[in-house]
Specification:
With 420 residues, this protein is mainly α. The protein is built from 18 helices and three strands. A hairpin with a 2-residue loop joins strand 2 and strand 3.
Length: 420
């Protein structure tokens, strides 16, 4: 039998380290370059705090590699319960940040419970759908229960006024259920109302177009009357909810963010909520092929990009390392996602496969939304870029998911469906 360390997927861990290394370079540049004098003292410490959290993340990863897959699997529900308690505690005792209660303070340590909740939710859904009685997610009872496991933390996060993170939970539902075997028609029934909701935030006509096209597509593809009716009803409801939310639910600054991204250079937005997008796009465009050089970016070093070490770290990379550097980061991210899918596919138990799918889902949703934000294709909703953006809780949570997948794969023979 091979020594345990020889079974570790070192290639995955190398990709993880490369991404973190690129993130640290960008964070250092944005907080220690010529523009650092324009930043608050707390922001100038982001690099050192991220490096400290990296040490914590490495410790967490090392601990996970020592755990057996069955220990991880049987701890899924208890961990899920713990993160729900932390989310509830955040509602009552959370630290105010960015207009919502997002952080729990433990002395000098600040913990973002919603980040850990992503890990707990992935584990709990994987545990549920790996039950032999589920016979894949095509058993609708299990599919609905899985959706409920995701919806509960999503609701608690929404109550914290963190709509961006709540979207990650919602986006996880179709991804995990698709991997679990739910028919594609039902997956589309979950996805497209979200698109109609998004379109409804832009305009009523856009929502109507999505509804009509989806309904026709569902009928042509399935010829099932009930599914077609459900498609029309859910999409219409989503569009109406979006219109209602713009007027009665969302706060003025949230509405401004949604409206401004379609035309951030408009006079009413350029110096306000549209400022992020204008400066971010200017930074990305000015990087050219090779970039302006480390700590030489005009927009970055002029501190023109708000939140440049967190949500907008990709614009720092694109400006200072150019298309080559930004492309390299995206290639490594894509490689990591494909690698995790491979590890999940090689799992001999559905739990390991579903955890890998959930991890890929979390990373993919974050990446798509973050890149959409910095390039002006999506509203600014405050989601970090996995492994690259500053954020201790996020870094540890992302590493938790990756470590669990690697740990289960490393001992995949010990967790087999035949021995369950």
């Amino acid at each position: 039998m091979k020594a345990w360390y020889r079974n570790i997927d070192w290639i995955t861990l190398l990709a993880w380290l490369v991404l973190i290394g690129m993130g640290l370079l960008a964070i250092y540049s944005s907080t220690h370059g010529p523009g650092a004098e324009h930043l608050p003292a707390s922001v100038q410490q982001n690099f050192y705090r991220q490096a400290t959290w990296l040490v914590v993340a490495i410790g967490v990863l090392g601990g996970l590699l020592m755990l057996s897959p069955r220990t991880i699997m049987f701890g899924a529900y208890p961990f899920y319960g713990l993160v729900l308690i932390l989310l509830i505690a955040t509602l009552f005792f959370g630290h105010e940040a960015g207009g919502g209660a997002h952080w729990l303070a433990f002395g000098p340590l600040r913990l973002q419970a919603s980040e850990l909740a992503k890990v707990g939710t992935v584990l709990a859904v994987a545990q549920l759908l790996s039950d032999r009685r589920a016979v894949s997610a095509q058993h609708m009872g299990y599919a609905l229960r899985a959706a409920g496991l995701v919806a509960l933390p999503a609701l608690l996060v929404m109550l914290q006024n963190d709509m961006g993170t709540a979207l990650v939970f919602v986006g996880l539902i179709p991804i995990v259920l698709f991997w679990g075997g739910l028919p594609i028609s039902l997956i589309l029934l979950m996805i497209v109302p979200g698109l109609a909701l998004y379109a409804g935030l832009l305009s009523a006509w856009a929502a109507a177009a999505v509804t009509v096209l989806f309904t026709l597509g569902m009928w042509i593809g399935t010829r099932k009357r009930m599914l077609t009716i459900a498609a029309a009803a859910l999409s219409t409801a989503a569009g109406l909810i979006a219109s209602f939310a713009l007027v009665h639910i969302l706060r003025p600054h949230q509405v401004a963010r949604i409206i401004s991204f379609t035309n951030p250079e408009a006079e009413e937005f350029r110096q306000g909520v549209g400022f992020h997008l204008v400066q971010s796009k200017a930074a990305i465009g000015s990087g050219g092929i090779w970039g302006k050089g480390f700590m030489e970016g005009t927009q970055t070093q002029g501190a023109y990009i708000p939140e440049q070490s967190t949500d907008f770290v990709f614009s720092v990379i694109a400006e200072e390392f150019g298309l080559v550097g930004a492309g390299f980061v995206l290639l490594v991210l894509g490689f990591l996602l494909l690698r995790l899918i491979k590890l999940g596919a090689e799992s001999k138990h559905p739990f390991g496969s579903l955890v890998a799918a959930g991890a890929v889902g979390v990373y993919l949703i974050h990446t798509i939304i973050n890149l959409g934000m910095v390039m002006g294709l999506l509203p600014v909703i405050g989601l970090p870029l996995p492994f690259l953006s500053y954020g201790g809780s996020a870094l540890v949570s992302y590493t938790l998911l990756l470590g669990i997948v690697v740990s289960i794969h490393m001992r995949r023979d010990a967790l087999s469906i035949y021995g369950y």
